[in-house]
Amino acid sequence: MSGSRQRSNNELVKWVREKSGNNAGIRSVHYGLYNQGATCYLNSVLQVLSMTTEIHDRLESGSKTTDDELKTLFKYLKEATGRTEDITESLEVENVHLQGDAADCLVRILRKISPRASEVFKGERTDAIKCCKGHTINEDIDPFWYLSLSLEDTSDPSTAHSVERGFERIFRSRVLDGDAVYCNVCGEETKATCESEMVSYPQILSLLIKRFILDNNTKSHFKSNRCVDVPRKLQRNHMKYEVYAVVNHTGSVSGGHYTASVLSHEDGAWYEFDDANVYKIEEQPFAESETFSSSTAYLLMYREAPKHDQVVSNRDEDAIQIVYPGQTQETMHQRGGQGDKCPTCKRTTLWISLIVVICVLVLILVVVLPIVLIK
């Protein structure tokens, strides 16, 4: 990194930290990470992973150096601000003063840790090429750590990009440009379409906002600061996800700064992780809407939404029965306790009692009454 670029980057980092300090809320119970030089990209990813509890019990001890380093760091972060020298050594980072990419860093870590831990982030999608009559010509299964969302999908870059629509667009059928493709089933060349689908859903779904774009005229990259509308929930077929972390990037391609906004599982509030500084965000995301707009969101992290164990069904007059998965009406009627009996059971018991009373009265009239009259 050149001296001028280094100074530019340092000035930007200083400005971001001063801005964060001026707008800081209540100091959190979470702790940050010291920056070794230009390791904000690493710190942001590590803070997200430290709050991704799904992988903590999957990290192995003794077999993988990176697993051990992460376990040690996550434990230390519960008590004090952490250092990352051991992590950078484990990841074989040669120059801590050279700016890196957060998405590349995430993949680098996932490839280093044990497969059982990294599989939480791993998904698979199919890309199938089909003829105009729907016959499959070719199909590939592609594993992924994250899915990329393009910002170059509308003619008006001033409007906010919808992450939800961008996510759905990945799986939209599209006509392939170029020459016709030969279909063995049809026995002829035909226009082809490409259809994508997720066949293996990751527990943690990561979405990359492609802010670094190649200019075909200059053959150089530039950064887009276009706003994106981030939804709190995403759904694909039967799988539902809820956002819990956002890695942000400010600055340009040549010099920038990474921070992480993460939802705390301890108090349900969002916190800003800016290297060693951690603050509760004053204007909480999703406080007033199911989406929030951001011009800095770069890497979005969604976790699998919790499944509800109860399903409300079978309305009977004023009563609502709670039917649990795997439970039948028969097993419900067999449950003990007056409070567990349904209205149907109560009515059945009432009818049986009434029939018994009628039988007793008939018996008295037919048997006992004649005997009394004879005497």
What is the compact description of this entry?
By secondary structure, the chain is α+β, with helices and mostly antiparallel strands. It has helices at 3-22, 40-50, 65-76, 85-90, 102-112, 115-118, 163-170, 329-333, 343-374, and strands spanning 123-131, 136-144, 147-150, 161-162, 174-175, 181-183, 188-190, 192-200, 204-210, 212-215, 220-223, 228-231, 233-236, 239-251, 256-263, 270-274, 277-280, 291-294, 297-304, 311-316, 319-323. The protein contains nine helices and 21 strands.
Q: Give the % helix.
A: 25-40%
- Give the biggest sheet: 8 strands, mixed
SSE succession: HHHHHHEEEEHEEEEEEEEEEEEEEEEEHH
Number of helices: 9
Radius of gyration: 31 Å
Q: Give the termini distance in whole angstroms.
A: 122 Å
Number of strand elements: 21
Detail the poorly predicted runs: 1-27, 309-347
Tell me the structural class: alpha+beta
The overall pLDDT average reads: 81
How much strand?
25-35%
The global form is extended
Explain the overall architecture.
The chain is α+β, with helices and mostly antiparallel strands. 29% of the residues lie in helices and 31% in strands. The protein has helices spanning 3-22, 40-50, 65-76, 85-90, 102-112, 115-118, 163-170, 329-333, 343-374; strands at 123-131, 136-144, 147-150, 161-162, 174-175, 181-183, 188-190, 192-200, 204-210, 212-215, 220-223, 228-231, 233-236, 239-251, 256-263, 270-274, 277-280, 291-294, 297-304, 311-316, 319-323. The strands form six sheets. Strands 3, 9, 13, 14, 15, 16, 17 and 19 form an eight-stranded mixed sheet that branches. A hairpin with a 4-residue loop joins β10 and β11 (220-223). The protein is extended. Residues 1-27 and 309-347 have low confidence and may be disordered.
